[in-house]
Structures are given as C-alpha cells and as structure tokens.
Design a protein that fits this description.
Layout lengths: L9 H24 L4 H25 L5 H23 L1 H5 L3 H7 L8 H43 L3 H6 L2 H14 L6 H25 L9 H26 L3 H11 L6 H8 L4 H26 L1
Helix pairs in contact: 1-9, 1-13, 2-6, 2-8, 2-9, 3-6, 3-10, 5-6, 6-8, 6-9, 6-11, 10-11, 10-13, 11-13, 12-13
C-alpha cells in the first residue's frame, strides 16, 4: 500500500526533496571548489550509466511479479506522457523558429526525465512499491524518449538510429528484466544482494554527478527556446500526466508515480547525447543548469498536490 498521507504538509514535502537537492549542491561544490575534475565525474557517470543504474533497473523490475494486464495501464500512461512531451516540445519549431540544430538538441529537455532524482524520491514517497513502480515507468520511458532524441539528432548528423538504441544499457537492462519477470525467473539470493548494492550506489553518485554537471555558459543563447522547454517539462507535462492518470483510472500509487515522473527536471544525459551526436551541447547544458534549480521550486508543489 502506498504511503499517501505523511507528506501532505508543505514542510514535510520540503524535507522530502531537500536531501537530494543538497546532494546536487554538494556535487557542484566538489567539482567547482575542490579537486574533483570534470574527467573524474565523466568516468563516474560512465560507471553509473553502464553498470550501476542498469543494475538498479534490472533488480527493481525483476523482484516484483508483473503481469501484462497489471502493467498495461502504466505503459499506456508512460507512452502518453512521453508522446505529449515530444509534441509539446517540437511545437516550439513553428512558433519560435530556432535553428535546426538547436531544436534537435534542446527539444529532448522537454521530454527526457532525470531518472536519478525520480528513483531517489519514489521510495521516500511510497516505499519499496514506489521504487518498483518508478523503475517500471523508467523502463517503459527509456526506449521511447531515447528514440525521439536520437532520431532528431541522427537526422542532423546522418548517424545510425537503431545502433545507438541497441547500445543503450538502460534499454537493454529493462528488456532483460521484463523477459525474466514475465518468465517467472527469480534471482539467486547472492545475485539479488549484489544488484541491490550496485543499484543503491547509483542513486547518490548519480545525483552528485547532476550537481557537477551544472554550469553557466553565456553567449548567443536562445532564452525563448529554453523558457519553452522548461515550461513544458516542469509545468505542462506534469499537468498532462495528472489528466492522463485520471482518464486511465490509475490506482493511487501508479497515479502518484506517473505525475512525479512527469514533474522531473531534464535529464543530464541529454547533454551527453547532444555532445556525442554533434548537437548544441552548450544550449542543452544551460537548459539543464536552469531547469534543475527551478525544479526545486516546482517539485515540492507537485508533491504537495499528489501526496
């Protein structure tokens, strides 16, 4: 049963999100004020992306039996939120007329979600059931939002789309976990414990990397495009998720988690993808660096509404 009531008071909501945003600030301090270089955090991000975070997703999805019928409404809700995010983000093209490269790079900040913060908040809000539900949502969303982001950038650079998706460790771990779950396979205790240890490390380290990635790079910046994407990500998409959850009649736990997921700030991985695929990394970095501090204001409000 989801714990829906303990965080109904504004002070409790603030205390719920405060530790994770303090970790973000600590990550920023480690990089900016101490001797932890960008290369150190780049290596740490690689470890999290290829080892620790896939372990967390795999173990979280495998440990609770899932049926197609029980997961169908959650998949539909996740796909709807992702699709609406893509559409709302790309509506900036006819209205703001940004350059093709800026649009392909920045649009992903309107629909890609910071999974580190989501998986840190989910168990605090709804216990182990919340973490499992959030892992499922992330597992469903990863291929959808990556497909949209990679396709847009690949069109600009002529890169291969399906090769990039098949090399995505989050997608591969999710598919493997769903196959094992539907097949009724159970992990040996030793393997389960190992994955728990690896996955647990991914949350705190991932949030530290979020803080280290924050930067300000002034220049010829398209602030109208930044404002559009952050409005979509932090305000419009959670509101849409609210209506989708009510329309589908999701149970309280799933409703809570899909709205929380939709309210996440942009994913720091958007910057990595933009740089690796020849996009406008400076613009994406700025969107993330503005969006995460802003989410410290918007997230408590959404949590207060759904608690």
């Amino acid at each position: 049963m989801a714990r829906l009531n303990p965080y109904s008071h504004p002070m409790n909501v603030a205390l719920l999100v405060l530790p994770d945003f303090l970790l973000i600030g600590f990550g920023w301090l480690l990089h900016r004020k101490f001797s932890f270089t960008r290369e150190f955090f780049a290596s740490l991000e690689k470890l999290i992306y290829y080892v620790l975070f896939p372990a967390l997703l795999f173990q979280s999805i495998v440990r609770v039996p899932i049926t197609v019928s029980s997961a169908a409404d959650l998949f539909l809700a996740t796909a709807s939120v992702a699709a609406i995010g893509v559409v709302l983000s790309w509506l900036a093209l006819p209205f703001l007329r940004p350059t093709a490269l800026a649009m392909a790079s920045g649009a992903q900040c309107g629909y890609r979600f910071n999974t580190y913060i989501a998986l840190a908040l989910a168990p605090s809000l709804a216990g182990a059931a919340g973490q499992t539900t959030m892992a499922l949502i992330i597992g469903f969303a990863v291929p959808l939002v990556n497909l949209a982001a990679v396709y847009a950038l690949a069109r600009q650079q002529g890169s291969g789309l399906f090769g990039a998706l098949l090399r995505n460790p989050l997608l591969m771990s999710t598919v493997a976990a769903l196959i094992c779950n539907f097949a009724g396979l159970q992990l040996p205790q030793l393997v389960d414990t190992l994955l728990i240890r690896l996955g647990g490390a991914s949350i705190a380290l991932g949030i530290l990397c979020v803080g280290a990635s924050l930067t300000w790079q002034p220049g010829q910046t398209q602030f109208s495009l930044i404002g559009w994407m952050l409005t979509v990500k932090l305000l419009l998409l959670p509101a849409c998720a609210w209506f989708i959850a009510d329309w589908l009649g999701l149970d309280p736990l799933k409703r809570q988690m899909i709205i929380l997921f939709a309210a996440m700030p942009p994913a720091t991985g958007a910057y990595v993808l933009a740089v690796r695929m020849g996009g406008d990394g400076r613009l994406v970095s700025l969107m993330i660096s503005i969006g995460i501090p802003l989410s410290a204001l918007t997230l408590p409000l959404w949590l207060l509404f759904i608690a």
